[in-house]
Amino acid sequence: MNVSAQQLDAVRWLKQSGSDLVAARQLRDGGSFAQSCFFSQQSAEKLFKGAIILLKGAIPRSHSVQDLSNTLRAEYAVPLDNFYTVSRYPDASPSEMSPFELYDVDDAQEAIHLVEQAMRVTLQWLGEQNLMPEGYSLTPCAKAETAPGF
User: Fold this and answer.
1) 3-state secondary structure of 143
2) For the whole prediction, is pTM greater than 0.90?
3) What are 5-28's pLDDT values in tens digits?
4) 29 exposed, middle or buried (CB, 10 Å; 0-12, 13-18, 19+)?
């Protein structure tokens, strides 16, 4: 098996994306909705970074899911950028509420749903483009409770 360091780096990003999605689900189930929203954003960010590494060979230095998805010409997770800062910092909120007061189970569920959709589509696309390194396969885990398998 001839796998480049770049391909292994991409796989690490994709695996971490799956782990962040699992964390988002656990946080939602535990009632930590702002944190679940943030981990959903992180999952999408790492998913797109891994895919971009496989596609272009370089890791983009951006935290914007919108910018990253634009690089892939995908727009199915763009609203997740709203969770990057406001879900964590009290002074980033447009109101006088703290982040944990701003989000509810519906917000967390919607964020998770967006990541699941992005993951399903992105992993399918990577497989169709034969971009995954030989010997590795990502099983779309839209409903799985664990990270993608390799």
Assistant:
1) coil
2) no
3) 888 899 999 999 999 999 999 999
4) exposed
